[in-house]
């Protein structure tokens, strides 16, 4: 649209009135015609303001609307006569009674080859006829909004960067001309720019240039989270409507990409210990030059330390370790939105304080020590850590020595350990793991006394087959620091045939008061005879299986 054709509404109408023949006056009155035909409001298409649509219907039985026409006028002057409005798409029931200006009849300004003299608003009269000849004309059925539709294009905030942390709102205010769809600038208009979420910050009014461009003063921004909105509204004879556009700094900002390294001084820390995380920031684009005085955020679980790099780009953060879920990860991130680097992290376990409860402990007569314990987190109720490694220890020479295990078994709430032992002071120990800190059970003592058979003799030798062999010996136990006679104790006589590894019980008895033993049994084959203290009580071990024997030849 040429600038010299942007006439005021009054001047344009006066010019058309002088040039065009006068049309009959159309009074605003009740629609004239058949009451069976109805006409709704004529409405401008806001996307293309050179087009409008209207609803029309008939209540006559078995009839339908067959013709709809319209004319556009300014006062008594008709500026456009539309003989036919086309119906809406038949496939959409919602458009069955809708009639629209055909595309080839789109209204345009005179300068664009149309009949509309100038921008502004015009009255629309509509006439509808049905298939039975019923007809209705509705004057002022609607208002044609033939004004420019504003739009904001190319709105941006510049390029905030690490070394220039300012947003510079800028853009172009244009308008779409009805009919032709031409885009024209809107000069000397005020565009309002505001920072989103900054209710206490006064919006800025920016005036457009002759080309519709606008540029604001710089805004200091905190980071990519800042966003701005430009808006414009006008309701005049030339322009009608609102336009807005938003832009986030994140879409345009240019941070400095750094290279970062970081390590922790440990992978596991006990509750209350200090963890030290250290590292360095360098500028990859500047040949690895150190980045001094830059903020760095170091976190470990809920603990956060905000530190700054030194002149050499190095940083150090010290954080206390607090047991919580048992497993954490330290991380290092940038403390400046305009300085970015890949997140750094590493494992750091903080074991929960734990407790080992002794459930049972026993030492069998054959020298098997069996201990059952319950391991749990100290301050976490209803936690049973049965999948942790524990070890059995015995007090030796004033210290604790690990006892080799024969077996370790786990159930849902206990750990059972088995080992060979001749008695002493014991405890169970859980070494620190990522889940649980060290725990030691109460120490306990298990005592049994060793026994042995001495002066073993079997005779006679040789012995006749079917005859009796008499086996004698002495039963002793280690009591009060010395081997002493063990009287009135159960003993058994065992025989191992020549060439066999199995022992067979042949007779039982008890030792005399002085510990002497004499047992006899029939001899049926060559073999070895021995006596064992076997059916022991709760205070003694069995005599060793390797107590020896005496070989007897049978003839």
Topology:
Elements: H1 9-19, E1 32-33, E2 37-39, E3 43-44, E4 52-58, E5 65-74, E6 77-82, E7 86-87, E8 98-100, E9 120-130, E10 135-146, E11 149-156, E12 166-167, E13 170-176, E14 183-185, E15 190-195, E16 204-207, E17 213-215, E18 219-220, E19 227-235, E20 240-248, E21 256-264, E22 274-283, E23 289-290, E24 295-300, E25 303-308, E26 314-320, E27 327-334, E28 339-340, E29 344-349, E30 354-363, E31 368-377, E32 390-396, E33 399-402, E34 407-410, E35 415-420, E36 424-430, E37 439-440, E38 444-446, E39 451-459, E40 468-479, E41 482-485, E42 490-497, E43 504-510, E44 516-522, E45 527-532, E46 550-552
Parallel strand pairs: 21-28
Antiparallel strand pairs: 1-10, 2-4, 3-4, 4-8, 5-6, 5-9, 7-8, 9-10, 11-13, 12-18, 13-14, 13-17, 15-16, 15-19, 19-20, 21-22, 22-23, 22-26, 24-25, 24-27, 27-29, 30-31, 31-35, 32-33, 32-36, 34-35, 36-37, 36-38, 39-40, 40-41, 40-44, 42-43, 42-45, 45-46
- What's the end-to-end separation, in Å? 140 Å
Instruction: Give the CA-based shape.
Output: elongated
What is Rg? 53 Å
Note poorly predicted spans.
1-30
Number of strands: 46
Q: What strand line-up does the widest sheet have?
A: 1-10-9-5-6
- Portion in beta strands: over 45%
- Computed structural class: mainly beta
Q: Average pLDDT, to the nearest integer? A: 90
Helix fraction by DSSP (H/I, runs of at least 4):
under 10%
- Largest sheet properties: 5 strands, antiparallel
Helical region count?
1
């Amino acid at each position: 649209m040429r600038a010299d054709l942007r006439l005021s509404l009054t001047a344009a109408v006066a010019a058309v009135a002088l040039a065009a023949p006068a049309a009959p006056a159309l009074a605003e009155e009740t629609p004239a015609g058949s009451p069976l035909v109805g006409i709704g409001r004529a409405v401008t298409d806001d996307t293309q303001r050179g087009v409008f649509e209207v609803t029309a219907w008939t209540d006559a039985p078995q009839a339908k609307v067959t013709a709809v026409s319209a004319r556009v006028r300014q006062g008594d002057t008709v500026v456009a006569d539309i003989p036919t409005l086309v119906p809406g798409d038949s496939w959409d029931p919602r458009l069955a009674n809708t009639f629209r200006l055909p595309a080839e009849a789109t209204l345009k300004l005179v300068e664009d080859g149309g009949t509309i003299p100038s921008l502004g608003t015009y009255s629309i009269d509509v006439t509808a006829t049905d298939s039975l000849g019923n007809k209705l004309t509705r004057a002022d059925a609607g208002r044609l909004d033939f004004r420019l539709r504003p739009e904001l294009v190319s709105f941006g905030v510049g390029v905030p960067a690490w070394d220039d942390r300012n947003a510079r709102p800028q853009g172009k205010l244009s308008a779409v001309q009805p009919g032709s769809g031409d885009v024209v600038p809107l000069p000397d208009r005020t565009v309002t720019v505001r920072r989103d979420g900054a209710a206490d910050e006064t919006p800025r009014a920016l005036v457009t240039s002759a080309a519709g461009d606008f540029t604001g003063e710089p805004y200091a921004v905190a980071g990519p989270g800042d966003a701005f909105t430009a808006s414009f509204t006008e309701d005049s004879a030339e322009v009608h409507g609102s336009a807005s556009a938003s832009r986030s700094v994140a879409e345009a900002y240019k941070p400095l990409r750094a290279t970062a390294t970081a390590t922790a001084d440990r992978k596991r820390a006990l509750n209350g210990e200090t963890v030290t995380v250290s590292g360095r920031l360098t500028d990859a684009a500047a040949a690895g030059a150190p980045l001094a005085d830059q903020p760095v955020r170091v976190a470990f679980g809920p603990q956060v330390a905000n530190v700054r790099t030194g002149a050499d780009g190095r940083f150090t953060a010290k954080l206390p370790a607090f047991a919580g879920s048992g497993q954490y990860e330290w991380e290092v991130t940038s403390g400046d939105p305009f300085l970015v680097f890949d997140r750094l992290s590493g494992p750091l376990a903080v074991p929960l304080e734990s407790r080992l409860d002794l459930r049972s402990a026993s030492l069998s007569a054959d020298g098997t020590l069996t201990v059952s314990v319950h391991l749990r987190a100290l301050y976490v109720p209803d936690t049973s850590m049965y999948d942790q490694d524990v070890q059995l220890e015995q007090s030796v020479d004033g210290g604790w020595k690990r006892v080799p295990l024969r077996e370790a078994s786990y159930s849902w709430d206990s750990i059972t350990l088995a080992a060979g032992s001749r008695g002493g002071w014991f405890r169970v120990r859980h070494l620190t793991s990522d889940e649980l800190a060290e725990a030691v059970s109460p120490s306990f003592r298990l005592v049994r006394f060793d026994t042995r058979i001495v002066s073993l003799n079997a005779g006679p030798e040789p012995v006749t087959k079917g005859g009796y062999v008499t086996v004698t010996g002495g039963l002793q136990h280690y009591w009060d620091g010395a081997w002493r006679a063990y009287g009135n104790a159960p003993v058994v006589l065992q025989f191992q045939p020549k060439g066999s590894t199995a022992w067979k019980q042949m007779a039982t008895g008890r030792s005399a008061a002085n510990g002497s033993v004499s047992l006899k049994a029939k001899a049926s084959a060559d073999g070895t005879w021995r006596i064992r203290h076997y059916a022991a009580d709760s205070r003694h071990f069995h005599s060793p299986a390797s107590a020896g024997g005496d070989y007897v030849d049978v003839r």
